[in-house]
């Protein structure tokens, strides 16, 4: 299959455990026959679930998808802290968590819900003096990342179990959160708040913005049928839609300004021409609409 046969759009992947997000991109480059492939938000190798991948022109939408809200199903183990804040790292401290009650766990979860200040995991991809934080940690260095604001709109406990003869407690949760929230850091901070340490043992991303597991395909399924959500449909799913007149579409495609959308909403609007094709993304600036990006007509990869 060559790049001329694969239209621009999004592929919603159910990422398998053990694969990096970069591994998935490499696999889809081969399946789609194009180098122009990218993803919207890294999933750690341990994690599974929704990874949004852009093909050809749709890679230009990825910047806007990264900032959308996300939903995760996770299991947090209380009683052990690890160097990576997840099960892939060496245990750095162990404390018997048998005395921690369900009520204390739920209260600590409530304190980590809402608008909070979170220190990212030290093994995140955040750059420190030009070097990835995780690379510095794995080389034996120390990293002190500043706290930053994130929003955890839902932190719901589904089950609390005793493990390892009651020494440890496992907590199954669902988290709805803003972009930039680290679920590993929530696990770490929950354990720290309870005085017993904590880390993440399982993580599955179930939603990225409007895209969920229901739309996702495994890599095996994609090898049989490369399901691509067309660029026009993807833009309409992601953003409010503004229907353009033929003259407005012509002006926008040639870089000329058009009147404001006037919907009173911040953020991008998908500009759709009379034939149902996305021309670009707009944002109101006073009485005019500013083009955030414009898709070049014709050339599939442009």
TrEMBL record:
What keywords are annotated for this sequence in UniProt?
Answer: Isomerase, tRNA processing
Which residues carry out catalysis?
44 (nucleophile)
Q: Which residues form the tRNA pseudouridine synthase II TruB subfamily 2 C-terminal domain?
A: 239-295
Task: Report domain Pseudouridine synthase II N-terminal positions.
Answer: 29-183
State one molecular function term (GO). tRNA pseudouridine(55) synthase activity
Q: Where is this region: Disordered?
A: 250-270
Protein family (similarity comment): Belongs to the pseudouridine synthase TruB family. Type 1 subfamily.
UniProt protein name: tRNA pseudouridine synthase B
């Amino acid at each position: 299959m060559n790049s001329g046969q694969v239209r621009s759009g999004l592929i919603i992947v159910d990422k398998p455990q053990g694969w990096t997000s970069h591994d998935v991109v490499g696999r889809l480059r081969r399946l789609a026959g194009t180098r122009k492939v990218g993803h919207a938000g890294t999933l750690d190798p341990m994690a599974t679930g929704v990874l949004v991948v852009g093909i050809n022109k749709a890679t230009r939408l990825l910047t806007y998808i990264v900032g959308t809200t996300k939903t995760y199903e996770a299991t947090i183990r209380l009683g052990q802290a690890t160097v990576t804040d997840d099960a892939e790292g060496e245990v750095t401290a162990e404390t018997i968590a048998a005395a921690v009650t369900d009520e204390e766990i739920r209260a600590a979860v409530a304190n980590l819900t809402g608008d909070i200040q979170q220190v990212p995991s030290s093994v995140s991809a955040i750059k420190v003096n030009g070097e990835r934080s995780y690379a510095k940690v794995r080389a034996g260095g120390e990293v002190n990342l500043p706290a930053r604001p994130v929003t955890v709109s839902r932190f719901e406990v589904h089950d609390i179990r005793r493990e390892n003869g009651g020494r440890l407690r496992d907590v199954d949760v669902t988290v709805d959160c803003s972009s930039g929230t680290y679920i590993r850091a929530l696990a770490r901070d929950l354990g720290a708040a309870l005085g017993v340490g904590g880390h993440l043992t399982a993580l599955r991303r179930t939603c990225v913005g409007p895209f969920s597991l229901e739309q996702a395909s495994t890599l095996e399924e994609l090898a049989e049928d490369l399901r691509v959500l067309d660029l026009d449909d993807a833009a309409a799913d992601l953003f409010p839609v503004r229907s353009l007149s033929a003259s407005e579409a012509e002006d926008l495609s040639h870089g000329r300004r058009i009147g404001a959308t006037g919907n009173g909403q911040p953020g991008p609007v998908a500009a759709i021409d009379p034939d149902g094709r996305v021309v670009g993304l707009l944002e109101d600036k006073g009485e005019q609409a500013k083009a955030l990006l414009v898709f070049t007509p014709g050339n599939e990869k442009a």
